[in-house]
Design brief:
- 73% of the residues lie in helices and 4% in strands.
- The chain is built from three helices and two strands; from the N terminus they run ααββα.
- A two-stranded antiparallel sheet has the order 1-2.
- Strand 1 and strand 2 form a beta hairpin.
- Helix 1 crosses helix 2 and helix 1 packs antiparallel against helix 3.
Length: 90
């Protein structure tokens, strides 16, 4: 069980890194047909679509990646505390 939770925590950490790269790459003129960009887009875009229905803009600033990043942080900290409680025997 602890191994599964660790794998899930590491997956969420990797997802947060991908979101960070996606946000940084959105500031630069990169070709949309590049294979890495297409893979990154196919991973991140379904997550972003989840929060698009919420009011997520402040002017021209899109807060969707921030909302997803915040939700992943909350989920990660919950899983870390759950893993620690399993490990300590409580």
């Amino acid at each position: 069980m602890i191994f599964f939770v660790d794998v899930l925590i590491n997956f969420l950490k990797a997802l947060k890194i991908l979101i960070f790269f996606w946000v940084v790459l959105s500031w630069f003129p990169v070709p949309k047909d590049h294979p890495i960009i297409r893979i990154l887009y196919s991973i991140i875009q379904p997550l972003i679509r989840i929060v698009r229905f919420l009011p997520h803009r402040i002017g021209v600033l899109d807060l969707s990646p921030f909302i997803i990043f915040l939700a992943l942080n909350i989920l990660t900290s919950f899983l870390v505390s759950f893993r620690d409680s399993l490990f300590s025997g409580y």
